[in-house]
Amino acid sequence: MIAFSDTVRGRVDNGVLLIEIDHAPVNALSTDVRKGLLAAVAHGEAASDIVAMVITGAGTIFIGGADIREFGAPPAEPVLPTVLAAIENATRPVVAAINGAALGGGLEVALAAHRRIASAGATLALPEVKLGIVPGAGGTQRLPRLTGIPAAIDLIATGRTVPAAEALQLGIVDRIESGDLRAAAIAEARALAGAPLRRSGALAVPPATAEAIEAASNKALARARGQDAPREAVRLVRLSAERPFAEALAEERRTFLALRDSEQAAALRHVFFAERAAAKVPGLEDVKPRKVETIGVVGLGLMGSGIAACALDAGYAVIGIEQTEDAAAKGRARIEGLLDRARQSGRIDDAGKADRLRRLTTSSALQSLSAADLVIEAVFEDAAVKTGLFQKLDGIVRADAILATNTSYLDPNAIAAATQRPERVLGLHFFSPANVMRLLEVVRCARTAPDVLATGLAVAKRLRKLPIVCGVTEGFIGNRIFSAYRREAEFLLEDGALPQQIDAAMEAYGFAMGPFAVFDLAGLEIAWARRKRQAATRDPKARYVDIADHLCEAGRFGQKAGRGWYRYPDGKRAVDPEVTALIERRRAAKGIAARDVSDDEIRQRLLAAMAAEGAALLSEGIAARAGDIDLVMINGYGFPAHKGGPMFAAGQAKGPKA
Ligand code: 3H9
């Protein structure tokens, strides 16, 4: 065994130097790994007992990419392009044995090798755009030489992951090995010794029509609103056919370094690390979750059927309950509809659908929930209905089964208190559509037991959700911040702005939809009911805007009603002069003279309102970390990820931290 650095070692097998990167947890390309790789290749080129080399990763990951933790500091030598030039220009063959995920710089290492063999379970991606950057070590130049420009644009500008089989089809890998990957790679490397080497950088870019390139760019950029990296990725990939390899590589590197230092990249790195931090809940380190294999879902409306479909996707057995057999049948049909949609989009096949349906039972017999390990309630949002249900469930489910409420606004502590075992109750607040939205607020009630909370998190992870733990407060993290956002947006209306101006300002900031368009989409009636509920306890001196109440009184409940803050002729959002007149009337009634409100003021006030509410949630201990709040707003409310979330953006506004 030869140690090339602390994290890279080698051994010679039948004249082939097997270079192994061993840098837990993901074999990221730290300075030590880059040093070790460079030394290993130099050794492989010089040693007289070696004819070829194989690069592979220890454990289940090939290489998880550049070490993101090093991005805050200037690049340290040797930089990755130097290492990859040494690999590509080696005179002895280098084979990449891709034993698991090859991501970012990790895939770039493989692309610089002369041949790529992947295990059947390997996954490949250049996900740099998700971090606000572009590949910085040849990915934008070597990949199109293997796949052609349209496919390279698709992969690099979206950052999407491809499984080994697709990578083979696209020409990214040369072979899939389902047996002993290392042995196969060593044999192939040896066989290549002395033969002409296929260097990716020396290949001609396969021709593609201008239309195909244009179509791939448009498709990849369709969802990249306001983000710099995807646009730059497209430009760089196109450059591969226009400029000599070395010149385009230099341009790629320049772009990578500039983007690496950008605000968007800092924001997306914050999001990356916030997601990892969110999974770690203080106090739960050594707590074992309970076993969950069967999930009961009570209420199979829009939300409940989405939750059921999601649980079926994750491999759980699901017991769906409705009030009557007829409603249960309708619920089952709704779940089947969701499965059909997944089948039409190619996400599952016929066998997948059949398997899911085998794991689903639906009925009106609450008693059948005695078999459930976890019951999620998704019934009508009414305190008496929910507490009544929990009391019944308490007597039906096993003593160690867990009860979860999906309430958005009611007090889960009160629901828990209605049971004999409040310690087994928690909130699982899904977002609609529940089988699509990644966010899940996991609500720790006053008496929730640690292993019940840990189970909530484990189930969320298996459901492929992003769980954020929060304490009990009306609306939890997301809806409380959203209420503050709504309140400030309405103040802006009274001050002189109009819905369309406010929406346009926030859409220019990066939201897919401005607040008023969102209110219309979600429906105005729930917030109206809430305001009526709170009317008696509202501070009479606090500023209160009643324009939305007038809209509701006029039956303008939003898009479903065809009218809300906007009109919807042919389903398309249009400014309604009646709403403008109403706003003017309400301003006049309060004696407010409308003034010009700039787009900057709109953005600044709305962001500040969100950040202030976030700060309150932190000080009340409802949210544990500012990053958790950012993740909620990004994943549940359309806050642009490349701005890092309201808390991160507020920090930037005050001046980025050193
Ligand atoms: C790049 O490569 C740029 C190049 O083109 C330019 C070169 C010049 N660095 O996600 P997990 C940590 S850009 C540092 O929970 P999983 C992570 O923070 C990079 N640390 O595990 C966590 O640490 P902790 C392109 C990293 O099994 C731990 O590993 N690469 C990195 O669910 C476990 O992470 C990417 O964007 C990293 N690159 O998933 C890949 N990656 O325990 C990003 C992870 O202290 N990574 N960590 O909290 C991933 O997608 C997933 O982590 C992966 C594993 C699929 C690898």
Structure description:
There is one protein chain. The protein is α/β, with parallel strands linked by helices and 658 residues long. An 8-stranded mixed beta sheet has the order 14-13-12-15-16-17-18-19, sandwiched between helices. The protein has a 7-stranded mixed beta sheet with strand order 1-2-3-4-6-8-11, with helices on both faces. Helix 15 links the parallel strand 15 and strand 16 (402-405). Helix 8 (210-221) packs antiparallel against helix 9 (228-239) and helix 18 (476-495) runs antiparallel to helix 24. The chain binds (S)-3-Hydroxyhexanoyl-CoA.
Layout of helices and strands, plus pairs?
Elements: E1 2-3, E2 8-13, E3 16-21, H1 31-46, E4 52-57, E5 61-63, H2 80-88, E6 94-98, E7 101-103, H3 105-112, E8 115-119, E9 123-125, H4 139-147, H5 149-158, E10 162-163, H6 164-170, E11 175-177, H7 181-192, H8 210-221, H9 228-239, H10 245-260, H11 263-278, E12 294-298, H12 302-313, E13 317-321, H13 325-344, H14 350-358, E14 360-363, E15 374-377, H15 383-396, E16 402-405, H16 412-417, E17 425-430, E18 439-443, H17 450-462, E19 466-470, H18 476-495, H19 499-509, H20 515-522, H21 525-534, H22 547-553, H23 577-589, H24 599-619, H25 626-637, H26 646-653
Helix pairs in contact: 1-2, 2-3, 4-5, 5-8, 5-9, 8-9, 9-10, 11-25, 12-13, 13-14, 18-24, 18-25, 19-24, 24-26
Bound molecules: (S)-3-Hydroxyhexanoyl-CoA.
(S)-3-Hydroxyhexanoyl-CoA binds next to strand 7 and helix 3.
Can you give me a brief rundown of this structure?
The chain is built from 26 helices and 19 strands. It is α/β, with parallel strands linked by helices and 658 residues long. An 8-stranded mixed sheet has the order 14-13-12-15-16-17-18-19, with helices on both faces. The protein has a 7-stranded mixed sheet with strand order 1-2-3-4-6-8-11, sandwiched between helices.
